[in-house]
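Request from the bench team (R.T.):
"We need a structural guess for the complex before ordering more zinc ion. Sequence and SMILES attached. Just send the tokens back."

Command: build protein-zinc ion structure.
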Amino acid sequence: MKRKEVILTIDDAPSGDFRNKVDFLHSKNITGIFFFIGKKLKKDRYALKYAVEKGQVIGNHSYQHKHYSDLSIQRCKDDILEAHELITGTLAELKQPPCQYFRFPYGDKADYKYGRIFQSFKEAYSSRPLTKTGKIISQLKRKGKDHDYLKAKGDHKKMVIQEFLRQLGYLPLDHPSLKYDFYQPLRRDYDCSWTLDSMDWMLKRSLPGEQMTTEQKILRRFLMTNPPDGRGEIPGPYGMRFLGSSEVILVHDYDETHLTFQKIVNLLEGQHVKFVNPQVLTRDR
Ligand SMILES: [Zn+2]
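Reply to R.T.: structure attached below.
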């Protein structure tokens, strides 16, 4: 039987629970990509060393973890670079090659769509009316301009940031077995998108009395065909039940979700997936 391949990606590292997660994966011989937030890493630089020693792959998840749609091009570049220098500098001390993977906070590619990449520009910006972009759009509307103007600006901004990432040596997250149509445009970008979001952040927001049902909802997403996605509607079939493509799975390094993290990994093991070692993704380039 064909085994589904899975690339495990863990955002928002390092939390206080970080070393537990690294140990847990290490004990199972699973390699994931840990995406570090610069300002969190600065307070715990040994976390990165710990992950490298246990064979994990390191990614850059920005310095401040802000919505890049809300920042100027220069501020986006500064933010990427600040995290890049911290991470790559630490890797150099460990005699490791520079960081090659970047993931935007909230998947926000700086194009004024706030990460809602599977929605039209109009739908995406409408979801954020109180942001800087939302306010600019209402001003423009009053002047009789439509959102095409801002969309063009957003497309340009995205392109400039992509070029900056390319120059810094970042690579797309790509694997031949990623066959989803919706992933094809994403595999050309110099950042790491994902195919399946665990939505484990729901647990962080849920009240203590709701935590059991929230965790069940999270785990059920790995058993569903076409689980809903925060980025807009993904044309199905997709998800763990669909065997026609591999999966890039998004989970988070939160203090509160340690046990859920383990349950997710155990559930994937129970589905007999093959965890792809992300080190092979760049080996042949
Ligand atoms: Zn994040």
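Two things stood out. The pocket of zinc ion is lined by residues 11-12, 61, 65, 105 (CB under 6 Å). The chain is about 40% helix and 10% strand.
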